[in-house]
Amino acid sequence: MHFTLTEEQQMIRQAARDFAQQQCLPGVIERDEKQIFPREQVMQLAELGFMGMMVSPAYGGSGLDTVSYVLAMEEISKIDASTSVCMSVNNSLVCWGLENYGTEAQKQKYLTPLAQGRKNGELYIGAFLLSEPEAGSDATSQHTSAVDKGDYYLLNGIKNWITNGSSASVYLVIAQTDNTLGSHGINAFIVEKNSPGVQVGAKENKMGIRGSDTHSISFIDVKVPKENRIGDDGFGFKFAMKTLAGGRIGIASQALGIASGAYERALAYSKQRKAFGKEIMNHQAIQFKLADMATRIEASRLMCLKAAWEKDNGLDYTLSGSMAKVYASETAMWVTTEAVQVHGGYGYVKEYHVERLMRDAKITQIYEGTSEVQRIVIGRSVLKD
Ligand code: CAA
Fold first, then answer.
1. Which of 48, 79, 239, 349 could disulfide-pair with 20, CB 3.0 to 4.6 Å?
2. pLDDT tens across 122-159, in order?
3. From atom 53 of ligand 1, which residue's Cα is the shortest distance away?
């Protein structure tokens, strides 16, 4: 066992760090306040090859490992979690799902431009449509229906909380095809956003990750060609679960980045802010906070990297991914709250960034499976042993 990164992994981390500092930091407060989607930043991520990091070069990807993806996600999330969630969804949920379960034709048509993040010079990304108004954690309770009409499926229903909802060109939609079969009566489909009958709802006015575009999406008699179904009939729920298992490594890394971004700001602030005649870092009350932050962040980082390493080595990463997500997201919430506290009154205003990081942290405990869902996954695994 060794803990050293390869030269390539270190280069990726540095490239992500430079990108975040130079391209994401300017304007991040304004994008948050005005809910501006970071289109320019995502286009630049595409140029860097970060929108299809783990996809084979044969399909337009960068052919990198999951460890590199974790490193890049941490660096970008330190500065701008609205940009990193867009990257995470495209990489982990959309590209990974298509590369592993799509047909050759689906990969040629959709995966290749999605991994490149652009098509004909325009942004080209995907979204993952599982959640519904009444199907969040209980993902089997799908109400969106896809009725087999011979050479196409007729899709009707509403999806909620969809990241990349309006900016995506391609949706991976999970829908019920036979409501008597439970999770075995569910399928996954590739749906082009510009198909007749697809309606994008209003942008959600969120607490955090306000730059990311979250929408509800309605489907009214949308005709989905048969060849756009992913996998065998009834594979949709397993497709969603397998895809989300990897997605959770991405969100764990996002949470890790939010935590380490807040910690770095708290540390720097504690070195320059004076109170009672000395820099506040020299007060034990602050030192102990910083020590606990650093320890929990390091534990989160190791958990993210272990899950990524397991994925890269063909091992089952469902448990380690869920553990990493629940631990890193709870760390992010705690660290960011403490980072605001270290900053005192300055932490409560926007210019110091930590209040935004605190708001951004919250969603990592909710999306791609709440902390409670992660505990279901972990609990079931533990009980099997
Ligand atoms: N891999 C493969 N198969 C799996 C699996 C996995 N990780 N997890 C479950 N399955 C299979 C089971 O083996 C079972 O198959 P069989 O019937 O053949 O035995 C089938 O799927 C049903 O599984 P369960 O009985 O475990 O299903 P459940 O109803 O008890 O639900 C759950 C389990 C873990 C709670 C699941 O519903 C879940 O993960 N819910 C959360 C959903 C979620 O993460 N939503 C996030 C939305 S996407 C998002 O946030 C993206 C974004 O935009 C940021």
1. 79
2. 999 999 999 999 898 999 999 999 999 999 999 999 99
3. 163
Q: Taking a C-beta distance cutoff of 8 angstroms, is the pair 98, 107 a contact?
A: yes
Backbone angles phi, psi at 42, to 5 degrees: -70, -35
Binding site membership of 88 for ligand 1 (Cβ less than 6 Å): no
Q: CA-CA distances (angstroms) from residue 299 to 25, 253, 256, 332?
A: 26, 12, 10, 12
First and final C-alpha spacing in the chain: 24
Catalytic residues: 368
The residues, any chain, with a CB within 8 Å of residue 256's CB and separated by 6 or more, are 70, 73, 74, 77, 297, 300, 301, 304, 328, 331, 332
CA distance 361 to 95: 25
Residue labelled with tokens 């990164």: 5
Give the pLDDT score at 35.
98
Quick check: CB of 163 below 6 Å from ligand 1? yes
Which three-class secondary structure state does DSSP give residue 37?
coil
| Ligand 1 neighbour 209 (Cβ under 6 A) | no
Which residue reads 């497709």 in tokens?
239
CB-side neighbour CA atoms (13 Å) of 223: 6
- In this structure, are residues 93 and 164 in contact, taking their beta carbons and an 8 Å threshold? no
- Quote the ligand 1 centre to 369 CA distance (angstroms): 9
Determine if the pTM surpasses 0.85. Answer: yes
Distance (angstroms) between ligand 1 centre and the Cα of 238 equals 7
Give residue for tokens 């896809």: 146
How far apart are the CA of 245 and the centre of ligand 1, in A? 9
Do residues 86 and 167 lie in contact, with contact meaning Cβ atoms separated by under 8 Å?
yes
Q: Is 376 in the pocket of ligand 1 (CB under 6 A)?
A: yes
